[in-house]
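re the bet — no i am not wrong, look at it urself. input seq straight from the record:
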Amino acid sequence: MNKLDISIIGVPMDLGQNRRGVDMGPSAIRYAGVVERLQALGHTVKDEGDIAISHTRKEQSPNTHLRNLEDVMEGNTKLANKVHEVLLEGRYPLVLGGDHSIAIGTLAGLADRYENLGVIWYDAHADLNTAETSPSGNIHGMPLAVSIGLGHEDLVNIRSFAPKIKPENVVIIGARSVDPGERELIKEKGIKVFSMHEIDKHGMTEVMNQTIAYFHERNVDGVHLSLDLDGLDPLYTPGVGTPVPGGISYRESHLAMEMLYSSNLITSAEFVEVNPILDEKNKTADVAVGLMGSLFGESLI
């Protein structure tokens, strides 16, 4: 990876779920030294500030099973336009969340720049629910479904086109909490998943080698990394809203990022679900920044 012109975009969104505090995630990641860490690697970093997000909470919107639909849509539309603007300037978008619903906007902003975009979904969850399958109505469990063209039309059609990505161009890594409707959709759409079973059985090196080879076979013209900190075991990232035991280790995650750096595949990234209220001395934000260091070329020697 060459030295990059990186634009950091903060998205203080907490409306995609019902636990407060994740809107402070971008500030916590900045406090943990993300700008300085990336600059030390020789990258040029421009902090674009935060997307303005409404902080009214309307709970389930009228006639839908979705929480805060209008405000989530508005925030993601702003984010999509900002990501698109950053790409037009020839800069690398690095998005800081916020809950994982912000991936709707990130992918909407990327999708008209890339004809065959690949996505790595590094997460304990598949985030493939719709209003019909979601147990909670929380939109942070729906962004991948929305991005492949399934879900509420207002979300699906942000920036006036859909779908944003092809389901066969998605690789989910670290899944260990998948709802029944999501399971059926994964089978129906042929989405590639490396669950914790595969990581435990084959090791992270083999999983990442297969992931990288898969994207080469698909002839993608870019790969977006969407990393939810709950993809890691909560032992390492306690400050997340939906922790699931038995996750990816700290060292395995650094290895994955180091291999992605060496592959030169990743063209944009987002790190989401850092909740300082639930955290221990900013530990989760520190882990996020450390993983960004590995993704952008940090090495011991």
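see?? The first strand starts at residue 5 and ends at 11. told u. also DSSP finds eleven helices and eight strands in the chain. so pay up
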